[in-house]
Amino acid sequence: MTTSLVAAIYHIRWPDLVIFLATYVGLALGDIPGTRLDRSGIALLGAVAVLLLHRLSFRQAMNEVDYATLVLLVSLMVISAQLRLAGFYDWVVHRILEVAHSPQTLLAGVIIWAAILSALFANDVICLIFTPVLCLALHRAGRDPIPYLVALATASNIGSAATLIGNPQNMLIGQTAHLSFAAYSLAVLPLILVCLVLNFLAVRMIYRRRLFAPPAPAASTPLPAVPAESPPQWDLIHKSLAIMAVLLAAMLLGGVLHVARPIAAMAAAGLILISRKTHPRDLFALVDWPLILLFIGLFIVIGDARRHQLLEPAIRAVANAGFSLQAHGPLAAITLVLSNVVSNVPAVLLLKPAIPVTAIDTWRLLAVVSTFAGNLTLLGSIANLIVAERAAQCSVRMGFLEYLKVGVPLTLASTLLAVLYFHWV
To answer: Which of 186, 213, 263, 401 has its CA 20 to 30 A from that of 269?
Structure first.
């Protein structure tokens, strides 16, 4: 193995290796000391280096960008932005709080609705909206918000794995492997449901005392600063949900209608933009443009590595060491580690050259495990960080070690379950 590694390194073109390593080390660190760069900026600078050093021509670099995935991502963000501005997500949270008459019912409601909405819309948005409303309501009830916030973060991650539009990495995998929308969801749904039950049981068991403790006087802690709730705009909500329902039908029947998912999503976003009440710039302002730039930068950096055969020696070395990336166990383990080192989107982009397009179950496993991996630590998913940051604004602290109590056992159990599930089905 050592000889093969030395031989492989000898044939690697060093500028490409330096760009690739510098980009992924930066992604692992999350920022560059002494600067305000984030992961999106780091990926974009990696792409700039590829172009400045003439590793790829501009035309070649643009050919490496998967525009279908970007169109799908932006279009779904526009639809979600309209529902957010119309007050739909706020209304859902308040309905959960109204019908939940016990801590256990509330916990189940948070997990179920966070999972459902995250499967259809961005889990980041769900966490952004749910967190302050939960904090305020639980403060008024004298309840500890931490168990519910942990459940919100973990359930939104698990639920987003249920569809090919639930999160960015699933969109990328669906487009790369040409996965059927309906077949994927039908295949993974039993696994997702079992993992959500595990999620409920883990939070209930670990936080049993805090969940069922007698309510404390609400005045004993300062009232969280949460923006006042605005009434839902039902005409916009009904329009958006109707368009989303048609879009889901088009995705489910894509093979019959011969309409590609990105085109269907773009058409749906176009209908959302036609409004007498909402200005398009307000919707575009809620699109996660840094995430789009992260995708573009990584497409170019990974494309450069692929064109100059940077990844093949590493893949062969891993295989020679007995860790075939086409075997579900090693793939799940490597995905779990990589997703928590460099984040799940860069991890998927790094691993996808090693998986044959025809290996459908392997792609499904990659989609599920790269998403479940976000539950391992507080830093494993942007959704987790959003919950922590929004909770802090409401005078509620969800610390790194606090999150690990549920995150570690839940992630390890759900990942193992995913490997066994895809081995049996």
So the answer is: 186
Q: What is the pLDDT of residue 217?
A: 65
- The pLDDT, as a whole number, for residue 300 is 94
Residue 32 has pLDDT above 80, yes or no: no
Residue 222 vs residues 70, 140, 392, 402: alpha-carbon distances, Å: 43, 10, 13, 22
* Tens of pLDDT, residues 329-359: 999 999 998 888 878 888 888 888 888 889 9
- Residue 12: CB atoms within 10 Å: 17
- Is pLDDT at 237 greater than 50 in this prediction? yes
Q: What's the domain range around 408?
A: 2-424
343: Cβ–Cβ under 8 A, 6 or more apart, which residues? 27, 39
Residue predicted with more confidence, 90 or 414: 414
The rounded mean pLDDT for the chain is: 87
Q: What is the tens place of the pLDDT at every residue in 61-93?
A: 999 998 998 999 899 999 999 998 999 988 988
**Diameter of the chain by CA atoms?**
69
Percent of the chain exceeding pLDDT 90 equals 49
Contact 74, 102 (CB under 8 A): no
Count of domains forming the chain: 1
Torsion of the alpha carbons at 354, 356, 361 and 366, rounded to the nearest 10 = 30
> What pTM does this model have?
0.84
Closest CA to 298 of 336, 352, 260, 262: 352
